């Protein structure tokens, strides 16, 4: 587990947002950092991008598990009160309808795969034997990545709302270690982000 990278990623997002007041700038800085680290570890990443037919069950199971949680979430906590925050933080200059399509495309093409590869094959070395440390470290780091900026926007409530991301980080780390492949977590993460973006459009944009 690379604890330096684990700590650096949340601090970059939180620090850039604190300095600029703009979440898009923080996301871009985070992606540049992730890309640089992934390129440095590209040989390891290639090793974990293997595919075999037996992985299909893991892909479907992991994706459906996360999708089920996300489908229930709006019934547990109404997203409507966060519509103003969504527009203020992501699209402070307005034009959210057109900009949202670009944001969604960028998220699915760049953010989802880059973030998953960074956390599960660069911050984490899935070949290490300390599975408990790797899973708990992913929960901690991935949770902090989302909790720090959300706390800056929503206060203590943001930390609570970010707790499911810690569980997602632990799940995706476990599945990657168990299957010795990035694909189940990659597809599940992509599907999760696609559902989140669909929810953003339905509740905040349309």
Describe this structure in words.
By secondary structure, the protein is mainly α. The protein has one domain. It is 83% helix and 0% strand. It is built from 9 helices and no strands. It has helices at 3-20, 23-40, 42-48, 55-76, 83-90, 96-123, 131-154, 156-179, 183-205. The mean pLDDT is 95.
Summarize this entry quickly:
By secondary structure, the chain is mainly α. It contains 9 helices and no strands. The mean pLDDT is 95.
The assigned structural class equals mainly alpha
Number of strands: 0
Helix % is over 70%
Strand content: under 5%
| Integer tally of domains | 1
Shape: globular
| Unreliable sequence segments | none
Give the C-alpha Rg: 17 Å
Mean pLDDT: 95
Order of helices and strands: HHHHHHHHH
Main β-sheet description? none
Q: What is the count of DSSP helices, taking H or I runs of 4+ residues? A: 9
End-to-end C-alpha gap: 42 Å
Key features?
206 residues, mainly alpha, globular
Question: What secondary-structure arrangement, pairings included, does this model have?
Answer:
Blueprint: H1 3-20, H2 23-40, H3 42-48, H4 55-76, H5 83-90, H6 96-123, H7 131-154, H8 156-179, H9 183-205
Helix pairs in contact: 1-2, 1-7, 2-6, 4-8, 4-9, 6-9, 7-8, 8-9
